[in-house]
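Fresh eyes needed here. Kindly weigh in on this sequence plus structure tokens:
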Amino acid sequence: MPKQNGETTFSFADEPPPPKTAIKKNPKDLAEALLGWLERWPKNIVSSRDIRIWGPKILHSREGAIRSAEILVAHGFLSPITDRKWQVIRKPLIPQTPRR
């Protein structure tokens, strides 16, 4: 459209918006988010449904929740009960040393 009354036109106004790309999340970051959330989880058992409903927003997909839980199983923070249910293993952050 030609300029009228001293108006300036911007080229980006006529262009379509760029397509949205899915942000790839690092599985390690998702597992860390789950671990941080599990520290506040009051129950001793957690399911993939609990993680998806009550957990961090980045873990609301089923695949992300299960994959993150599998990573925590491999590192000893969860123990599998079924394929979508785990027991939370609460470890002290500071190792206890025997008192003399």
